[in-house]
Specification:
- This protein is about 0% helix and about 55% strand.
- It starts with a strand and ends with a strand.
- The strands form 4 sheets. It has a 7-stranded mixed β-sheet with strand order 1-20-17-22-15-13-14, with no helix packed on it. Strands 2-3-4-11-6-9-12 form a 7-stranded antiparallel β-sheet, with no helix packed on it. The protein has a 4-stranded antiparallel β-sheet with strand order 5-10-7-8, with no helix packed on it.
- It is mostly beta strands and about 240 residues long.
- InterPro entries: Pirin, Pirin_N_dom, Quercetinase_C, RmlC-like_jellyroll, RmlC_Cupin_sf.
Length: about 240
């Protein structure tokens, strides 16, 4: 088993006034040659956007883009004709493929919106751009790893063009769970603690800590407090 620890305070930091962002991997003005990506997981941004502000229309190409709102309401518009609102409990995905433009704005003027922006490198390029969005039921996340993303359109959650699986869990204090990798021969697991504290592979992880684990079949977790976890299983070839 191999691991790489990314403590919350070690992440890149950008404060643009209207946008406060923490970058687990190199992004925009933050560059660390040791932190380009974890396998096919290229971007993990922890964003907070001020009331009424947002990202103007901008393009993407050949990237799988996943947004996970944590607080507030985020308005999305894109060149495919979608105008939607995503909020806590929703999962949004775009396959940028041959090219797509979109904008993201805080719908509310009086409070920030917080969300994770995640990019995964695709296994198929120049596909027709696509968009999907789902709403999760909180009870499905209670004390279990609930699948929110996979490579399959007919499976639980959204799907992307990559051999990847994402799971969310809301764990009570003292709960112990194991995650079995879907493809342990080729994939690794990136653990991101949204809230709380969890013990895994002899490490205690706190809020917003990240941990990459690979060359392993199964990973055990022990919630030291009420904990919210995001698990991202991705191919390790770069």
């Amino acid at each position: 088993m191999k691991t790489i620890l990314h403590p919350a305070e070690s992440r890149g930091h950008a404060n643009h006034g209207w946008l406060i962002s923490r970058h687990t991997f190199s992004f925009a003005g933050y560059y660390d040659p040791e932190r380009i990506q974890f396998g096919k997981l290229r971007v993990l941004n922890d964003d907070q956007v001020a009331g009424g502000k947002g990202f103007g229309t901008h393009p993407h190409q050949n990237m799988e883009i996943i947004s996970i709102p944590l607080e507030g309401d985020l308005e999305h518009k894109d060149s495919m004709g979608n105008t939607t609102l995503i909020r806590e409990g929703d999962i949004q995905v775009m396959s940028a493929g041959t090219g797509v433009s979109h904008s993201e704005y805080n719908k509310n003027e009086d409070k920030p919106v917080k969300f994770l922006q995640i990019w995964v490198l695709p296994n198929k390029k120049d596909v027709t751009p696509r968009y999907d969005q789902i709403t999760l039921k909180k009870e499905n996340l209670h004390n279990q790893f609930f699948q929110i993303l996979s490579p399959y359109a007919d499976d639980d959650g959204v799907w992307i063009y990559q051999n990847a699986w994402f799971h969310l869990a809301n764990l009570d204090e003292g709960v112990k769970l194991a995650y079995q990798l879907k493809d342990p021969q080729n994939n690794g697991l990136y653990v991101f603690v949204l809230e709380g504290e969890v013990s895994t592979v002899n490490l205690d992880l706190q809020k917003r800590d990240g941990l990459g684990i690979w060359e392993v079949d199964k990973v055990d977790f022990n919630a030291k407090s009420a904990t919210q976890l995001l698990l991202m299983e991705v191919p390790m070839d770069s």
